[in-house]
Amino acid sequence: MENGKSPAIKSTNSKMASQELISKLENTIENIADFPIPGIQFKDISPIFLDPQLYEEVIEDLVAFSKGKIDAVCGIESRGYLFGIAIAVALQVPFILIRKKGKLPPPLVSEKYDLEYGSAEIETRKGQIKKGQRILIHDDLLATGGTTEAAAKLVKKQGAKVVQFSFLIGLKDLKGEERLKRFNAEIYHTLEY
After folding, report:
1. Mean pLDDT rounded to a whole number for the chain
2. Active-site residue among 79, 125, 134, 179?
3. CATH code at 87?
4. What residue numbers bound the domain in which 49 lies?
5. How much is the pTM?
């Protein structure tokens, strides 16, 4: 809970997280004031990993959103791997790493994107994303959406289609979802602050 309000649930799918799961997550995720810089409320999800049952419930929630709708999961480095790999395993589909520049061996496909101060680049190994695949892009948190938008462009560049985005948390005031609407994909987050 932040500012005394429970997070809203956002889903472009009829499936939504149970109130029980939302309550458990609200009581588990820690808000760290002024981290990493003053004025930021950091959402520390690491306590979820101390509770295997809660982690399993989160995976079940995210899997239910994507079941039967995707051919592969792309996880954004590095926190997108924490849930993304488990989603892919549960759905019996491939998991594809989206990494920061210089972390994967060639051959590579890359996408540059702008940051508030400068630019960054993400990459995948060439040939791991197949033409025509229906892709879920997963990350732990949707903030401004810049990295996720770049990930979607990276997928599209390889002839696949982003059909879904999923996140544990969405920060609605940062309007990241607006950046993703152009991909005409379903967007889901378990919690929205």
Report:
1. 92
2. 79
3. 3.40.50.2020
4. 8-192
5. 0.91
